[in-house]
Amino acid sequence: MRCYLFTSSYAIAVILAVTFLGHSALVVANELSNTVVDVGVYYESLCPDSIRWIKQQLMPNYDTLQNYINVTFVPYGKASYRQDSDTQQWHFTCQHGPEECNGNKAQACGIYAIQNEESANKVQQLSVALVGCVMSSRFPPSSVPQCAQNLGLHDNTLTSINKCIEGPKSNELLVLHGKATQNLNPSLSFVPTITINGVNSQEIQNKAQNNFFKLICDTLAEGAKPSQCSTA
């Protein structure tokens, strides 16, 4: 099933300083490029296209690109949230059902715990490894704790992940990811949506889905590319 969005029921808050569409968006991404490219990954824990992209585009290329990209994971996608005015409890609806909401929360907790408990110079590597492990598992929504353990994360990190998943922090994180997703401009229409240096366009999507490695090579400044880009 393709993870498209055909309707939008809410207004999107524009937070980008400058917004371009189509080809010009990729031009902006190129102009902003330097030695490191900011990559935003807006995805869902049970979306087949999200799983495919992470397994086939991100993971095989990460070792080569790790020093050239900053990856931000936003597990939310085409979900929605509301807060009960009486109880202040958060309620979520996800495209692939409640289990996907649980999976999005769990990955949000894993990423958050790594950012706060692990060494700063290992945060991206461990975050990518965790997401890659989870999204390659048989059932991503329940795989975060086991993948975290398999990666050898610190005991404090494991404790933080479990506490987050079982407590209100997971809801708070998913709301934050929801707001970040709603702030995409143009608004999210396909999952996963990949942004380059904060820019979201159809041209970027096409290139990211078909050849993420080449997209990064094309975005990096001349003289700041891995040698493998010469054959991309």
Keywords:
glycoprotein, three-stranded mixed beta sheet, signal, Gamma-interferon-inducible lysosomal thiol reductase, oxidoreductase activity, acting on a sulfur group of donors, disulfide as acceptor, globular, Interferon-induced_GILT, mainly alpha
Write the layout of secondary structure elements.
Elements: H1 23-32, E1 37-43, H2 48-65, E2 69-75, E3 80-83, E4 90-93, H3 98-117, H4 123-135, H5 144-150, H6 155-166, H7 169-182, E5 193-196, H8 202-219
Parallel strand pairs: 1-2
Antiparallel strand pairs: 1-5, 3-4
Helix pairs in contact: 1-8, 2-4, 2-8, 3-4, 3-6, 3-7, 5-6
Family: Belongs to the GILT family.
Keywords: Glycoprotein, Secreted, Signal
InterPro entries: Interferon-induced_GILT (IPR004911)
What would you note in describing this structure?
It comes from Eufriesea mexicana. Belongs to the GILT family. The chain has one domain (37-226): Glutaredoxin (3-Layer(aba) Sandwich). The strands form two sheets. A three-stranded mixed sheet has the order 2-1-5. A two-stranded antiparallel ribbon has the order 3-4. The chain contains eight helices and five strands, in the order αβαβββαααααβα. It is mostly helical and 232 residues long.
